[in-house]
Amino acid sequence: MTWWCTGIRWIDGRPAIGWYGQGPGRGERNSPLVYGQQLAFAARGERRCLGVRRAGRRTPCPTARTVPGPAGNAQCPECARLDRSFSVAADTNAADPRTYRVYLAWFGPGLVKVGITAEERGSARLLEQGAVTWAWLGRGPLMATRRTEELLRAALGVPDRIAYARKRAVRGHLPPGPERAAEVAALHARAAALEGWPESLERVECEVADHVEAFGIAALPAPARAVTEMVPGGTVSGRLVGAAGPDLHFADGLVVDTRLLAGWELTAPGETSATDVPVAGIPPVAPAVPAEQDGLF
């Protein structure tokens, strides 16, 4: 049976690499990651579309299309469109009856966003995005949380998304925990004081949480370079010291975005001829201005 990498999975607050088996008895499995362990793997064959995963089950791509190496999503255009047709983010599933939560996510000084996630997922969405510090703002029906999200974005001037390149560039230069928590708490207070929240949304008191231990932030070196794509025979090896969102951080400053691993069959390096993996340097990012100094407070 061939096992295709599906990227990182955050399970009970810990990172793991996901796999999808194609063949008799196909299914999914996970390989837990441990900080400090040596990792070595090579890409074999071609990068393939992983199909569509819905409600914990994966439907394979009917044509097993190839996917470009630099693409951040291991899906062909057809499967990506089908996947998005069920997406909460795309507002295509407004009848979802589940309870949702609005959150405030902090990735670095001044790098803050507001978003929503299904309550049943807990903090998984925050882990997947690489949120270092965060807090809940409210809970309620999907459309009420969506309206609240838009209200807070407009009133507080926070973006709807932050590029992963900025998140990873500041990860090795974060301020101490109390400073992180203070920035989140201050913005939470500002959000709570706004008028116009939907009546069906239940407010949540500020309890700032931190993912420093889950991500291994304390041991992270300053990110120096990142893999830009995997190629047939391309190898990666090194000592894993942390993970945040989709990124694996190695002791030598290398960062591997596991979204680029998805769709590849990964093997031990000795099973295929070695080829260099394309990498690019990570330029230092000037610290963003904290929100309270940027006209928000």
Could you characterize what this model shows?
The protein is globular and about 60 Å long. Helices cover 19% and strands 32% of the residues. With 297 residues, it is an alpha+beta fold. The longest helix is centred in the middle third of the chain and has 16 residues, at 177-192. It starts with a strand and ends in a 16-residue tail after the last strand. It has 6 helices and 17 strands.
Helix-strand pattern, N to C? Answer: EEEEEEHEEHEHHHEEHEEEEEE
User: Structural class of the helices, strands and pairings?
Assistant: alpha+beta
Task: For the record, give the distance between the C-alpha atoms at the N and C termini, rounded to a whole number.
Answer: 57 Å
Question: Spatial order of the strands in the main sheet?
Answer: 16-4-13-14-15-12-17
Shape: globular
Provide a short characterization of the protein structure.
By secondary structure, the chain is an alpha+beta fold. The chain is 19% helix and 32% strand. It contains 6 helices and 17 strands.
Secondary-structure map:
Elements: E1 2-11, E2 14-22, E3 28-32, E4 38-44, E5 52-54, E6 57-59, H1 77-84, E7 99-108, E8 111-118, H2 124-129, E9 133-141, H3 142-156, H4 164-170, H5 177-192, E10 202-203, E11 209-210, H6 212-215, E12 225-227, E13 235-244, E14 247-250, E15 254-257, E16 265-267, E17 279-281
